[in-house]
Design brief:
The complex is a heterodimer of chains A (64) and B (285).
Chain A (H helix, E strand, L loop, with lengths): L11 H6 L10 E3 L4 E4 L4 E6 L2 E4 L5 E2 L3
Antiparallel strand pairs in A: 1-2, 2-3, 3-4, 3-5
Chain B lengths: L8 H11 L7 H16 L7 E5 L5 H7 L3 E6 L2 H4 L6 E4 L11 E7 L8 H11 E12 L5 H15 L12 H10 L3 E10 L2 E2 L2 H10 L16 H9 L9 E2 L2 E9 L18 H7 L2
Parallel strand pairs in B: 1-2, 1-4, 2-3, 4-5
Antiparallel strand pairs in B: 5-9, 6-9, 7-8
Helix pairs in contact in B: 6-9
The chains are: A mainly beta (64), B alpha/beta (285).
Protein name (chain A): UPF0434 protein CD178_01320
Family (chain A): Belongs to the UPF0434 family.
Chain lengths: 64, 285
């Protein structure tokens, strides 16, 4: 068994109020990848140990 | 609009990351400030269901949750905001990642003084508060660390013939009131409180600053290593009381402001008055 343990779930209330820090637009939570995706900004914000890292500098840039 | 970059946010984050394991050394100071801040909640009749804690260093969020308020802890350092194990977000205070009207209460305890765009931050805070939500904050103001600032300036002048910025340029109390007003908060109030701190040795003061993640993060700081002789000279120049202790009082501005709501007391506009001034003057003795 080499599967990673599932990431701890994000607090649902927290998820309901989080937006993209750059555009203030909505985020899509990709639980598999552990990322919060802002389509408008083209950024994917990582979630590490249940903590969303909402820093534009650390976000993965989505390819157009 | 370009905001002047006074503070190096990358370094602020590094300092807070480094301090995450050591911050318990200064817990008494943080708890004192947090306790005084939360005393203000006892003075208001409104109850709060949800809160955002900005930079509470693992001290503020548990206190809020203890009051039955569902709290999200936010910090620039992921290690710092994860300290108490509750819901946490790593965020840049200058780019708040929350939707409008997300929280009843936003609290910032000793965490706003490394922010470049304070007016921008306060405007965002007002926006994420529900109408009639409360912003409650305290931040160090002048003359906090004045003794250390002067000692460093004198020592650096003596050793190197010039000075470099080493202590953050804290705002004054009046600036804080003005900032609240400018950000559009209703019923803005800023008042002064002093936490008396006294150190037996200068090294204790420096260690506390490091444990709190409060060492120099100014953009224009000197990149050279501070010579030990300079630092020793500066620490020797710190003003001492009669008993030899070093007083470095923490002067804090306690700021409260409400997100505007129609239910709040409103000033009347000119022409809305119903009693002529003439009558009022005639009735008075």
């Amino acid at each position: 068994m080499t599967e990673k343990p599932p990431a701890p779930p994000l607090d649902p209330r927290l998820l309901s109020v989080l937006v993209c820090p750059v555009t203030k637009g909505p985020l899509v939570y990709d639980r598999e990848a552990g990322e919060l995706i802002s389509k408008r900004a083209g950024l994917a914000f990582p979630v590490r140990d249940g903590i969303p890292i909402m820093l534009p500098d650390e976000a993965r840039r989505l390819d157009a | 609009m370009d905001v002047p970059q006074i503070f190096d946010r990358r370094i602020v984050r590094l300092h807070r990351d480094r301090a995450a394991d050591q911050v318990d050394h200064v817990r008494p100071v943080l708890e004192e400030a947090a306790g005084r801040l939360l005393d203000r909640l006892d003075d208001v009749t409104r109850s709060f269901g949800t809160a955002l804690d900005i930079g509470g260093r693992g001290v503020m969020a548990p206190l809020l949750r203890g009051r039955g308020i569902a709290t999200v802890a936010g910090d620039l350092s992921p290690r710092m905001c994860a300290r108490d194990g509750g819901p946490a977000v790593c965020m840049d205070d200058e780019w708040l990642p929350f939707a409008p009207a997300s929280f009843d209460l936003v609290v910032a305890c000793l965490s706003l003084h490394w922010v470049n765009d304070l007016p921008g931050l306060l405007a965002q805070v007002r926006n994420i508060l529900v109408p009639d939500g409360l912003f409650l904050a305290c931040m160090p103001v002048l003359p906090t660390l004045a003794g250390l600032r002067h000692a460093l300036m004198e020592a650096e002048t003596a050793h190197q013939g010039g000075i470099s910025p080493r202590v953050a340029p804290f705002p004054g109390l009046r600036d804080c009131a003005g900032l609240l007003q400018r950000a559009g908060f209703a019923l803005p109030v800023a008042d002064l409180d002093v936490i008396h701190l006294s150190y037996q040795t200068p090294v204790g003061l420096i260690a506390d600053l490091r444990h709190a993640g409060e060492t120099n993060a100014l953009c224009q700081r000197t990149r050279k290593v501070t010579p030990a002789a300079l630092l020793a000279d500066a620490l020797g120049r710190l003003p001492r009381d009669d008993d030899g202790s070093i007083a470095q009082d923490l002067h804090i501005a306690v700021m409260t402001g409400w997100a505007p709501a129609p239910t709040q007391p409103q000033p009347l506009r000119p022409g809305q008055f119903t009693t002529p001034l003439e009558d009022a003057l005639r009735d008075s003795p």
